[in-house]
Write a structure and sequence with these properties.
The chain is built from 18 helices and 14 strands. By secondary structure, it is α+β, with helices and mostly antiparallel strands. The strands form four sheets. Strands 2-1-10-11-7-6 form a six-stranded mixed beta sheet, with no helix packed on it. Strand 6 and strand 7 form a beta hairpin. The longest helix has 28 residues. Bound molecules: flavin-adenine dinucleotide. It comes from Brevibacillus invocatus. One of its GO terms (molecular function) is oxidoreductase activity, acting on the CH-CH group of donors.
Length: about 500
Amino acid sequence: MGIRTGAQYIEAVKSRQPEVWMSGRKITNVFDEPVFTRPILEMANLYDLQHDPKYQDQITHVCEETGERTNNAFLVPRNYEDLQKRRAVFEVFAKATFGLMGRTPDFLNVVVTSMYSNADFLDKYNPNWAVNIKNYYRYIRDNDLFLTHAIINPQNDRSKSSHEQNDMFTHLGAVRETPEGLIVRGAKMLATLAPITDEVIIYSFPGFKPGDERYALAFALPVDTPGLRMLCREPMQDGTRPLFDHPLASRYEEMDAVLVFDDVLVPWDRVFLYNNVEAANLLYPKTGIAQQPAHQSGVRGLIKLQFAAEVACRVADSIGVDVFLNVQDQLGELIQSVETIRALLRVAEFEFETLPSGEVMPGGVSLETVRGLMPTMYPRAIEVMQIIGAGGLLMSPTGADFEAPEIAGDMEKYYLGREGITGEHRVKLFKLAWDLCGEAFGQRLLQYERYYTGDPIRKRAIFYNQFKRNNNFDLVDEALNLPDFLKSKTTV
Ligand SMILES: Cc1cc2nc3c(=O)[nH]c(=O)nc-3n(C[C@H](O)[C@H](O)[C@H](O)COP(=O)(O)OP(=O)(O)OC[C@H]3O[C@@H](n4cnc5c(N)ncnc54)[C@H](O)[C@@H]3O)c2cc1C
């Protein structure tokens, strides 16, 4: 089939009935549930962009294997130009959602592409796993599917490993083998967008210990597989709030869910890894599933940071406070943050790394630096927005107030901004800012930048240890050892 249209994606959502629980209710029709309807339409728009003549050649390519048009997220990059093709789809999808939806289809499609192109790693442990991931890659590529993933165990007792928890199947683990496949039981989190996706893929961060064999798992299933239950978090919006009042929260709610597997059958041809602690611990470093999708996360994060910085600048301008030195200093800082991330991504792409297979990956040090900086840069952008918006952020009326004739005059008189900024425009601007920096929706966006790919503290520690392995800090030796031209003239 190749690239899907938005209508085909919506048709697929409507054709399924995953077991979704939200606010104590079992959702029977995901598409018609107000919390999900607008996000589904946003996703459909991304699928339609693949068919838009303005973007098609930028974000898709003709697949050599099938001759069909395919999203660039499924391209195995072999050179700098391929990385640019990948970047194009990340950028177009992120711009369409202002970087506010982190788990658009391109994210996990890159993960699976990376597992596919590095399937030799799985082959060493079990040739069937390699065959399975290759077939799965082709299946999602050729049907242009949308995946969610759950790679974290529920937050129960983090001081104990999976097999040490009170109930052996609190964390998702294999119960038994059958001729048809594996029976799995337990929970995994935090599956963003799960109710509106086609498939779920399960794998894990490293950290397995001997005794954790049954938890060392990687597999994929359709979201409506019997026995798979999605427990949604409390929605950040109910899906019915007017777009005037919540221009972002009402469009880009990325629902997160805990996935519960109640003795679910995973067919053998969907098992990519099982019962092997060593393979599970090496999956990340050996298949590029951190580095390749970090390119998507970096590009998407850049758009989000740029958007936050631009909203802060426009808020400041709208009430004339950007004439003050302190405000200029804060806004200048945000623009420099954006430029830092932009430059790092360029460096990552230019200084790509080539694997023995010929696949290239954006430079790991630069990408990890992006990852390390965003958890402070994005919250800082939000803080600056709060500081500059000040009391105005809390006193916005609603769209309905502008429509009430008795107070329409007040709206224009008391809410207008600097010369040229109408009351309605200023209120709209401040509402955009409030969705980002005040609403629960905005707090989730902030938490996302901290945690979307693991604990930033441990990530930076891993970064340091890896950096140290590859660097001797040679400049220090050069400073300690006087050069010959000085030695002869100096008393040491
Ligand atoms: C908005 C959002 C969306 C997400 N989307 C997804 C998704 O789509 N799919 C998915 O699988 N995951 C997703 N995640 C989950 C994400 O991967 C985890 O939040 C992240 O890995 C951190 O794990 P945790 O939340 O369980 O925190 P924990 O690991 O429980 O950490 C809690 C605190 O304890 C400290 N800590 C815990 N263990 C240790 C240790 N061993 N050593 C030192 N310090 C420790 C941490 O530093 C942290 O401060 C998402 C998270 C967020 C916030």
